[in-house]
Structure formats: structure tokens, C-alpha cells
Amino acid sequence: MDLPDWIRRIFFVFAAVQLLFTYRAAHLARRAEPGRRTDPWLEVADHAVGVVLSVGLALGALSVLVVAAPVLLAVLSWQGIRSALARRAAPTAPAPGAGAAPGDD
User: Fold this and answer.
1) Mind listing the pLDDT tens digit for each residue in 78-100?
2) How far apart are CA 56 and CA 73, in angstroms?
3) Distance separating alpha carbons of residues 14 and 76, to the nearest angstrom
4) pTM here?
5) Residue 13 and residue 58: Cα distance in Å, rounded?
6) Could you report the per-residue pLDDT of 14-58, keeping only the tens digit for each?
7) Cβ of 65: how many Cβ atoms within 10 Å?
8) What single DSSP character describes residue 65?
9) Mapped to the 3 state alphabet, what secondary structure does 31-54 carry?
10) In whole angstroms, what is the distance from residue 52 CA to residue 49 CA?
11) 3-state class (DSSP) for residue 90
């Protein structure tokens, strides 16, 4: 893959920024409570695969794109499914005016 040098530099800068986000996410994932560790580690995986993808694109390695893109797709799908299930399982707030009114006997 033949990319201009300025695009390669942008990919390298993007990879460096993602590496910082990966470090931050790993730090938060290590401090997470035992029952709430999956989502932070999925975020770490998302950023880590993004770093690999950005560096692979910056180096012009199409094989890295072929391998890393499906992994990133799987991680993002897993995150989406978990967030959809969490929203579905979350209790909904009662409607205004519903329930017991103060002073009602």
C-alpha cells in the first residue's frame, strides 16, 4: 500500500494518542471492582487494537488491516451488545405522578 508521508505521520500520531488512551484505560480497568471489570477491559482491547491498526496502516501493511479489523469489529460488537443488554436490564424510573402521593390515605 502506497501512502504519502504526511498520511503516514498522521497515522503514527493517532497511534501515539491511542496508546495514551490505552494506558489510561488499563489503569482504570485494573482498579475496577470485581463485578465490573469486563467493560473497562473491552475498552482497553478497543484502544489496543486501534493502536495496532493505526501502526499497521502507517507502515503500509495491508495484512495488519486484514487481521486487526475483524478483531476490532468483534470487540466493538461485544461492547455494543453489552451496553444494549445493560440498558434493557436497567430498571426504568416511575412515571411522574405515579405511585403513592403524600397524605393520601
Assistant:
1) 999 988 888 887 666 666 666 55
2) 16
3) 19
4) 0.75
5) 10
6) 999 999 999 999 999 998 888 788 888 999 999 999 999 999 988
7) 15
8) H
9) CCCHHHCHHHHHHHHHHHHHHHHH
10) 5
11) coil
